[in-house]
Amino acid sequence: MAFPTIFNFLQQLSENNNREWFHGHKPEFLKAKDSFEIITELLIREIGKYDKEIGTLQAKDCIFRIYRDVRFSKDKSPYKTNFGAFLVPGGKKSGKAGYYLHLDPDGSFLAGGVYMPASDQLKKIRNYIFTHPEELKQIISKPAFKRDFGEISGDKLKKAPRGFPADFPDLELLKFKSYIVVMNYNKSAVFGPDFLNEAFETYNHMNPFIAYINKALS
User: In the predicted model, what is the mean pLDDT of residues 127-153?
Assistant: First the structure.
């Protein structure tokens, strides 16, 4: 199974986050990276069954680099201690909503949506919610959605966004700075025999929410 290979490497990396150790353990990194690519390819295949744009992606275009950008960070650790992949129409830089996988010995999660979109994109989403609130409320009130995600996650404004009336009945839906849903997993759950099948089902439950956000951004 691929997950122990990935987690064992990441755990060691978190305890030895320096270039000398990393270069001395490059074979282990490449093995873990290959395992993560296989998992990402499986996700592309399964999600592509109901989101056709995802089915055209390649794993290498979805996976984030392990190297950290430390230019503006107080933490100068050179490497991330997680593996992440974002499956999104048009690729990671498209600005659209997509499906995210995060594997980390300290806490893994599945997520979907759009995180901290640019101001023009955020305005598009809010405008669409303002004119189509019932469609979103139906999506987030479905039993499978509420069971898996509870509600939309992310930081919110305290007041109405600029340009929107404060008496809008569904104002809370407009206050989000990100529009994401999240389901968390501990290591034992990830190592379980049914994790991938559960992940496939969870992403399927995300799909209407992601499709809604992408309609807003189109």
Answer: 97
